[in-house]
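Please decode residue identities from the backbone states below.
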């Protein structure tokens, strides 16, 4: 199993995912290399999904807090 990698921001992870997809689409790769790229892509997709879920929860929480404070609260 690969070592844990440093957490990327969403844009970095998405760019890495897109690069792997491009390589799989245009390259005539050996099966083992293609499978490796595919597995890396799956992990990157999961990472992106988790980050989007986290941001959605945070955004919803902020929105709920503003609504609970009333229309005249700052911010």
């Amino acid at each position: 199993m690969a070592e844990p990698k440093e957490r990327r921001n969403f844009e970095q992870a998405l760019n890495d995912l897109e690069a792997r997809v491009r390589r799989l689409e245009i390259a005539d790769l050996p099966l083992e290399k293609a499978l490796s790229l595919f597995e890396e892509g799956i992990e990157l997709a999961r990472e992106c999904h988790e980050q989007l879920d986290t941001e959605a929860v945070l955004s919803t929480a902020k929105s709920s807090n503003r609504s609970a404070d009333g229309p005249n609260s700052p911010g």
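Observation: The chain is about 75% helix and 0% strand.
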